[in-house]
Amino acid sequence: MTDELDQTLHLLIVTPEDILVNTQALWVQVPAADGMLGIWPGHDVLISSVERGEVSYATAEGEYTFPVVDGTLCVGHG
After folding, report:
1. Is 74 within 8 Å of 43 (Cβ atoms)?
2. Strand partners, 75
3. Which of 23, 57, 72, 78 minimizes the number of CB atoms within 10 Å of its CB?
4. What span, in angstroms and rounded, lies between the C-alpha atoms of 58 and 64?
5. CB of 11 within 8 A of CB of 20?
């Protein structure tokens, strides 16, 4: 049986003032300089700029969107 953490990724959205989202996600979609990036568990390591738009993500409880202005996306392992 596959462990639930193997099927999710840790999503953390922060500002200088606060942690806005801290959850296990099934997938994440992020507006980047070259268009929307889809990120799934096991995605390769990646660093990208985030553009104005909406971050979309899904958890076991449902799908959510979160407005963003700009920032940095870091995808890593562990």
Report:
1. no
2. 46
3. 78
4. 6
5. no
The structure's pTM equals 0.84
The whole-angstrom separation of Cα 62 and Cα 33 is 27
Tell me which residue has tokens 């407005």: 67
Are the C-beta atoms of 27 and 21 separated by less than 8 Å? no
pLDDT in tens, 46-68: 899 999 999 999 999 999 998 99
CA distance 76 to 72: 13
Tell me, what's the pLDDT at 62? Answer: 97
Spell out the residues 6+ positions from residue 16 whose beta carbon is closer than 8 angstroms to its own: none
